[in-house]
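Annex B, item 7. Sequence and structure tokens for protein A, then protein B.
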Amino acid sequence: MRRLCIRLLEALLPVDLADQIVGDLVEQPDRGGLWICKETIAALWHLRRQRAKGEERTMRFITDLRIAARLLRRSPGFAAVSILTLGLAIGATTAIFSVIEPVLLRPLPYPDPGRLAFIWERDRDGSRDNVGFATIRDYASNARSIERWAAIGSWLPTLSGNGDPERVNGDRVSATYFHTLGVHPALGRDFLPDEDVPGRNQVVILSHGLWQRRFGGDSTLVGRPIAIDGNPMTVVGVMPASFDNVVSPGAEIWRVLGYTNQPWTCRTCHHLRMVVRLRAGVEMGAATAELDRIHAQLVQAYPKDYASVGSLVVPLQFEATREFRPALMALGVAVLLVLLIAVSNVVNLQLARAVRREEEFAIRTALGAGHMRLLGQLLAEGLLLSALGGVAGVAVALVTIPLLVSRLPAGLPRAGAIHLDIGALALVTALIVLLSLVMGLAPARRRRGDLGVALRSGRRLASGGHRATRAGLVVGEVALAVMLLAGAGLIAKSLLRLLSVNIGFEPTHLLSMEINATGPRYRDDQAIYANHRRVLEEVSRLPGVSAVAIANQIPLGGNVDMYGVWDADNPPTNPELVPSGDRYVVSPSYLRVMSIPILSGRAFTEADNADTAVKVALVSAALAQKLWPGQNAIGKRLTIGSPTDPPRTIIGITGNVKHRALDANVTQQWYVPEGQWRQGADNQAVVVVRTPGDPAALAASVRKVIASVDPTQPIVHVATMEQLIAASTAQRRLALVLFAAFAGAALLLAVTGIYGVLAGSVAERTREIGVRSALGATPSQIIGSILEQGGRLAVLGIVLGLIGAIGLTRYLRALLFGIAPDDPVTLVSVVLLIGAVTIAGCLIPAMRAARVDPSRALRSE
């Protein structure tokens, strides 16, 4: 009997309960069979009751959901508005989260990513600079905090063979680069240390995307040479498809740096970046302190080679997102505000609906339904509503995320990881649960006494708690709308000011494209210059071309090419402290094509574009003022780059141009004729074409002509100058579009909330309004009282919103240009807009109150 009972209990009871009861049976072997049977029957009866209770709860929950669905079907307007509001808010939140999470929050896809960092040299003003190769070696040799290190330089190679010539983005890196990151090729091998020397660095590693796109995923490619810049280089590896290149987004090919003691490994050549893996347990601050000590020793040993005073150690996670962090964080805050407004609006609708259902609740209470039973019903309704809103939100996110990705600024790291993933779905699930609790619990806040009154009178009564809650929600909605509108207004005004700045040239009707003269035919400078002259000649013959020029770089083109310059008659004691200027090596027609003004002196002529001509230069007004303050720079002599470079005579002063970005500080430029530049001709050059018509329509013809000059030279970055300007403001434009959309939605929801509260108030006060009308109150007085009620809510929300906006908009500083975060004109405009829209939202309930018939209102009681 005992064994049978034990086996029966072990088979039927849950493990924890079976262990407890079976333990009792085993520990009391002297008990008789009757006691054992009694204990077994009691345990099985307990199990049955537990199962029955669980089934009862499940059936009750299913019944509550069915009732909730039936109620939503009976109120299609309420259901549609609530689901649409929640869907849009959840969808927007999910879409923005899907961008922020992989870019800002998710750990980098490398082993132990918290130990990876960039190292920069720090100038006296706190700004950062790249690092020279000799300095990198000294850092790596003397810093005990560094476990591994690598140097990185930019590279723009041209691939030939296997189709048309193609220029790709790449990096020249130390052989230790991938080892420092902790990643390895999927095919082939990593770089070898003995390949990181001149002559043996003709090896490359490809990204998985380039391998698939250019070479069709040929697994036999590893170990074979490919043509790069006209030279054979061996492919030794292919990175895995999962490799996320955070260090240099967009790079698709890597070549060994191969530096030893060449001239460009000097301490003053700040053209490399340094990425390191710190030793385990070393904090960033400790590493910075150690490198500062090493840097101070280098400055003492080489006083003429350093203008900087220290170093900066920046976590790779932060550095990779530094440029985009302000805009993404601002958008994250904005979408959270929209979510709060949407939830407030739906809760407000729920509260208004709860007032209409007071009689129902009173009857159910009178029939014996307890408070917890009613609460369960309300929670089921909130869960169903939020779940439907969540489904709609997922649909919105599926449509929104691809659109959002297409509008993201170029160079955003980890853009490939932006999609609706399990993390985003987990967020939606969490929002559904949270919203179901909020929407279920908010209507449950009512006084029991009101139920009896409702049952006796048959009227719908809103408790004081309900009215206060609804009013508070409306005030919150208005406040949040003010904050969003203030942010949108500041960004819009900032963008307008940014687009109105004087960029120093005329961008309309300008077309640009880059060409790259590579290969055996361009072994010397004269061959490159001859190619440029032929391109200019052929393009100038095209119909619709007013003028054409060539330069090594153009404003807003994304290049940073600077040389140190100084007064040749007053050489500096430390060349590292001389000012730098943007290098422009140009054809004589360049300033005319770009419409850059000559403030004094003259422009270049064709006679200047010869190696035998007198060495001349043009300088911008900012550079002239820097080198010769208060003096006439015409006729002064300028030294560029190296002290051994022959001085050049200044023949003209040009206007300043915005070189790096519209919001960047004014930089200094200098110009020399292309034919006079003998420090290495630029294989990579930019062709700029001015046309009286649409420059984009001329692009195909210009490409065709350039290709006819040399079919092997790739043509890339074809864009109008207006497109380049738009690209430089892409972050602000995206922020403006989303802020404006969020602010518009917030304004609509806030006004809807005010309308709902006032409409409900008019319905509740119908008898009061009827009595006042019967006693002589005029329609204007009744309208005034309703407007006053709505105005109080709006004014309180505006005041709170202004306080919040002044605090919140300070975080928008990185997106603003020429405007303070607390700009009074913007804030006043927001107040006027909110006030005008609020009045419009109050008028309909006010007019309805004014039309109340006193006799009908009194009889309805």
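Protein B:
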Amino acid sequence: MKKQSLNTDWRFLYGEPIDRRWREIDESQWRTVDLPHDWSIEMDRDPDAPSGASNGFFPMGRGYYRKAIEVPEEWRGKKVFVEFEGVYMNAEVKLNENYLGRHPYGYTSFVFDLTPYLRYGEKNELRVKVDNAGQMNSRWYSGSGIYRPVWLLVAEPVHVAHWGVSVTTPEVGEDSAVVQIRSRVMNETGEAREVTVRARIFDPDGAAAGEAESTLTLEAGSEREFDQVVQVSAPRLWSIETPVLYQAEVEVSVGGETVDNAATTFGIRTISVSAETGFLLNGKPVKMKGGCVHHDNGVLGAASYRRSEERKVELHKASGYNTIRCAHNPPSPAFLDACDRLGMLVIDEAFDCWREGKNPFDYHVAFDDWWQRDIESMVLRDRNHPSVVVWSIGNEVMERDGRSGGEQIARALADYTRKLDPTRPVTAAICGVWDQHRTWEDTDVVFKALDIGGYNYQWQMYEPDHERHPERVMFGTESFPLEALENWQQVEKHSYVIGDFVWTSLDYLGESGIGRQDNDGKADFLGEFPWHQANCGDIDLCGFKRPQSYYRDKIWGVGEKLSIFVHHPVPEGKTPAISRWGWPDVSACWNWAGHEGKTFKVDVYSACDAVELFLNGESLGVKPTTRAEKLTASFEVPYQPGELRAVGFIGGEKAAEAVLATTGAPEAVRLTPDHSVIPAEHGSLCYVTVEVVDADGCMVPDAANMIYFTVKGEGEIAAVGSSDPTNTEPYRGNRHSVYRGRCLVVVKSNGKAGEIRLRAQGDQLDAAEIVIRAA
């Protein structure tokens, strides 16, 4: 199939059109937008929004999209489809006046056949209604709209079916590998056709690595699966360290003429799991250093760009993660592409609920009618990604203890997933029971349908459950940041515990304040307005490492051996409380003017045996920092400006040093782009870190200045924002205040080659300017 983008020049209306049948379009109501598009992130947060704290107090509602499509006369006799990667939610699609269908689930990709209703040689109009008005329907920020890309697919009547190519590697050795390619080919003509399918494999350098050819007769209106095997010599294996990708190309011919092509990347690798050996990748044990990740892209909202998804993976790799759990829905294709390229393992998850819902309008209203189609969408779309190593059929479902047919539902979902892809294990994330009439042992009925048992916040049950079920493979599908060490010690100790996934590795919108410190002593669950970020990520909403990420570095043995953090002062008469998903309110700041002489608690996270802390050259003592002390030394330090210096010792010898110093006053703005050159393509992004610095170029960690941005050239500002979880400033516009010294601006290419000049200035600060080149 030929694939072309449909991501520019849509007309959009928020609310209801005056003429609900769209017979008379009042253009004054509609505006032009490009995809991906999330209308909720554009709107002011509202404490009375029906979506509430779960969705970050963002408005939702209904929206309508229109897109004119040129359909040339030469397409007559061909098959034409439209593919939506993701629409949140309840999409209804029309072509001209013809109803194509609906798709309730907001996270799975779907396709409609446009062919029967096309008007050739003229413009056709694609119309999409998106209904996110039924609140509440999500436990986290969902966003609203056509938030992932849309594609037009054009094929001959004899063609490879959509998502019709499956590539597996059933036999892998040092000298050769067997690659099995199954291609589902459709004959949508009125006559039988003799069809030849040629499958070719190309190695990572683009050289031919093998091919196979088969010929079969397809009856009119039928489809057949071509099963072909190709031997690849001296295979280069895909792994976390060496994410080597091959390409399979399938060519379909009728009467000696090529009528269709399909291509997919894949990796040659093996996976296996058992309680005795754990998880093996290419025969080698791997412990999953995992994090849970929601679908949103921080300051961009739900809008999914190729670069935003790639950056997520880069941030995780840089912080030592090797596995991401997609919570709690299938991710964007671009995210999995990035995981393939960069070497990140993935748990691809289907649902947050089954037949019983957690909100009045969530997926449970569609589950019985749609689960099979949505499992197909996830598995058929994602099965060729080598990064995907586990399928998950659910998260904390109400039926986990057997109620409402939980055992039968789990078995049906797991069996169907294995039928579509027998090469990967199946899991589900199980938390403790919430009903006083149920026990943890009641969850066994769901666990027995799984290949790997997913444990949410239940690390204390690993050993007793192993006694009851010695064959069960386990991992911690969710864990609290404050229990990071305890969870990882279980992973290290037991072969049958194959990994741990913190909730969460990357912060997200919604579940407002779930990870907060509350100085009124009541950090029970969600926070009140203006809380709108979860505030529980190891990495914050802008992609900056938070204190718990530096602590995790010490557990995993990555990054610097020492990190110094200071507890923020608590107002007089207040009692701090930290939520179960939270972390103490600390920062790398020694700027506390006005608090001279006041005692501050200073924590040193350490991968050393012991730490000595100095204030302005004076020793404050030596403290052990072994695992018995949870890799942390705490000191009570009377504030005075200057320098905190920590020295770490291993075996009595100095092994590391870290410094935290008082900075000067805010002097200037500094801009640091993640790339100086970006592709001159629609939707290409550049992430620019904005810092307030002193005269010596040190970031001022208590700065809160408002920064104003201007862009000239071939680009625009896509988003601005900070990781302040209670800031009420919008994520759209040309200004934003820094939070603890920094914020983020995202610049987007307009698709043309040339310079993009970004300038940032703040009151009484020296301005900064950078040039990003789109080429």
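Comment on protein B: Residues 668-774 form a domain with the Immunoglobulin-like fold (CATH 2.60.40.10).
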